[in-house]
Amino acid sequence: MSGHTEVKAPLWKRVMWLVIIYAASVLALGVVASLFRMMMTAAGMRSH
């Protein structure tokens, strides 16, 4: 055995990464949805 011990990051750091990844994914989804909406509006599709 090599005696390698894995050190875990503190809980707040792991939670912060989770929050950052979640926020980035929601932001990316919003950008993609806005692009689709602009393309559909440019093609003449309207919701009302």
Automatic annotation (TrEMBL):
Keywords assigned by UniProt, alphabetized: Membrane, Transmembrane, Transmembrane helix
Pfam families, per database record: DUF2474 (PF10617)
Transmembrane segments: 15-36
InterPro entries attached to this UniProt entry: DUF2474
This protein's name: DUF2474 domain-containing protein
